[in-house]
Every structure is written in C-alpha cells, then in structure tokens.
Specification:
The chain is α/β, with parallel strands linked by helices. Helices cover 22% and strands 20% of the residues. The chain is built from five helices and ten strands; from the N terminus they run E-H-E-E-E-H-E-H-E-H-E-H-E-E-E. A hairpin with an 8-residue loop joins strand 9 and strand 10 (219-223). It is globular.
Length: 226
C-alpha cells in the first residue's frame, strides 16, 4: 500500500517503484500492468504499432512510461507480450470502465506463473471499491492473495484508506506512508499489523513498514530526491 495526500509525492514514488521492478527483473521476463483510472500515465505505443501521442494531445500532465503499450481489450495482452513490450496500461478515464480494467486484470492473472515476476500497479485503488468498502469486482480483492501464489505482486496507491475492504487490508505486507489529508485514515494501518506512528507532515517525505522484515518498527521518514 502506497498512500498519501494530494501532491505529497505518492505518485512520484509509485512511478519509481514500478520502473524499478521492471528493471530489476528484466532478465526474468518481468511484466507490469498499470490500471489507470485518473488517468495520469502516458503509454508510448498503441496496439496498431503507432505512437500513442495523439491520445494525450490535450493532456497537460503525466510522463510517458518507457516502452509501454496502451490496451483496451483483454485479448490484446498476448499480442503486447509477443511484440516485446513489458508494460501495458489500461485506462478508464475518470473512474469509468472499471469492468474493462478488471477483465484485463483477470486475463493478466490467468496468464501468470510463479517463475515470471509480474506487478499490478493500481494507481487510484479506491475507484475499485464502493463507498461501503465492498469491491466493485472480486478480482481486485483476489489480486494480492491469488497473485502472490503465481509470481504477481500488487502496488495499491490511494489518497485514503477509508473505503478499502478489510479483506484487502489484511493482505497488505508493505506500507509507504506520506502525509495524509485525513489523519484518521492512518488508524486503518493497524488492521494489517502496522504499529501506530507519527505521519510525515512535509511533502515528499514518507515512512516505510514491512510485515516480513520487522513488523514492530516503522522506518523513516525518508525524503524523495528523485
């Protein structure tokens, strides 16, 4: 879970973690899927083989993800891998088309295997949940449990934790916490075993916790310099 308020630095760290993953595991055939509902990521290519620049001609934000390809159908995944791409982006503008995103995610999981590292980057994770905490599609909750058994990690990014289901939170094993606009959201960290701690108050600072390494200690704060 990577969480932080508006302009706290959350997206910058999320970009870095995703790029670091594909670089670290490139020799093992790493694959990355970005579920982008804001949207904020710019793909480099389209399935036609042409540049995706025209898709983003009216955008005033967002950086291009190197060697990424934009897909809008689960059937596109096989062709994306076959043409040598390692990052696919599924975009649903302004939180719409969640069904498409979940269908692509299910296909991504179906094609996974434990010997090939994969990462699903859910950029605005609360878009996949109703206000009462129920998932809009079960695959988003199954992702961290089923994915872990088949070589697929999950990076959930969100400004808040209030709308997440307990089933999702109990599976969190890493936390990157920036300044939160609502400090009450930090109370939910205890639901997955993180001890109480003082949140950063400055932008671009975060604290880090790992359930596997030392669950009694929250490290930091660290300052983004990238």
């Amino acid at each position: 879970l990577l969480t932080g308020g508006t302009r706290s630095g959350k997206s910058t760290l999320g970009d870095y973690l995703g790029a670091s993953f594909t670089t670290q595991y490139r020799s093992s055939g790493a694959r990355r899927m970005i579920l982008d509902t804001k949207p904020r990521f710019k793909a480099q290519w389209r399935m036609s083989g042409r540049t995706a620049k025209k898709v983003y001609k009216n955008w005033g934000h967002g950086a291009y993800v190197p060697d990424s390809i934009l897909i809008d159908d689960p059937a596109d995944l096989r062709a994306a891998w076959a043409t040598g791409h390692r990052t696919v982006i599924v975009q649903a503008p302004y939180g719409g088309a969640i069904g498409l995103q979940c269908a692509c995610l299910q296909a991504f999981l179906n094609d996974s295997r434990y010997t090939r590292p994969q990462l699903v980057h859910v950029d605005e994770a609360l878009d996949f949940f109703h206000g009462n905490g129920m998932a809009r599609n079960d695959v988003i909750v199954k992702l961290p449990r089923a994915g872990a058994e088949r070589g697929t990690g999950s990076l959930f990014c969100s400004q808040r934790t209030k709308g997440f289901s307990p089933q999702l939170l109990e599976l969190i094993n890493l936390l990157y916490a920036f300044r939160l606009d609502f400090e009450s959201d930090a109370k939910r960290f205890q639901e997955f075993g993180c001890p109480p701690f003082i949140l950063p108050t400055e932008d671009h600072e975060f604290r880090y916790w790992s359930k596997a390494q030392d669950r009694k200690t929250v490290h930091g704060p660290y300052k983004l310099t990238i």
